[in-house]
TrEMBL record:
Coiled-coil zones: none
Residue span(s) of domain VOC: 7-132
Record protein name field: Ring-cleaving dioxygenase
GO molecular function: dioxygenase activity
Keywords: Dioxygenase, Oxidoreductase
Pfam families linked to this entry: Glyoxalase
Amino acid sequence: MPEDIPGIHHVTAIASDPQRNFEFYTETLGLRLVKQSINQDDVSVYHLFYADHEGTPGTSMTFFPYTDARRGQVGAGQANAVSFLVPDGSIDYWRGRLEDAGAEPDEPRDRFGDTVLPFTDPDGLPLELVARTDAPPANLPESQVPHAHAIRGFFGVTLSLTSSDRTGDLLKAMGYRQTDRDGTRKRYEADGELGYVVDVLEDPQARRGIPGAGTVHHVAFRVTEDEQPAWRDLLIDRDLRPTEVIDRKWFKSVYAREHGTVLFEYATAEPGYTVDEDLDSLGERLVLPEWFEDRREEIEAGLPELSP
């Protein structure tokens, strides 16, 4: 068996307007655009990566912004909420900041002893801020949000499933352990510092999710390159159909739909976002993997305007 997974590597969602997406995640949420690239499976679409200052695994929220995307339907077979970790005592600050930005946060609520602030991004993607006393130090020196309240990275995700037993078994094989339950919500936790929580909501009558703007495309978990083949073998042994290892330039990936049809990715931490850009200039220009460079002129002509 490979070593236990410490948590989430990144989460990728679908958006519509790339400029609006950029402004919300950098100006409102205070994250840094650490990579401006393309969807390698559809080069007419940006792939925008937001994270802490260094693009640390466990902090990276990424988007495919399709300018003509219809609003999706959040539902079963998807991650139906993405949760960010903030320090204890930050919820009032964030409530005011989100209200000022027109994000219309819901009332804070208690979940397993934590204060949770739900809200949505401009495309309707369900997001949450979870306040914890064990939040690590901020790593956003250029953030517009004070360090005392800054997002530290992921807390976790919530999966919506019509049946959760086989997904729970897979999470346990990945190193997550069930730590709590409240009605139809089960909590699984890994031993990492960021992105270590997966909540599972089980509802046999839940409506199916429909991909589109405002929905999560996939959830990626952190693995090492040495152990990535073993994770692929484990998926095969569990009657799943993983892809071959795919080189994404900044990490290598294996994808598989788990038994509840949520798309999981197993992504390496290396080589990271600084492999082709200096740390201080991350995200300032369109970066293409070298296998797309000979198409740069064509690709740039087909992308919508974006002013980071």
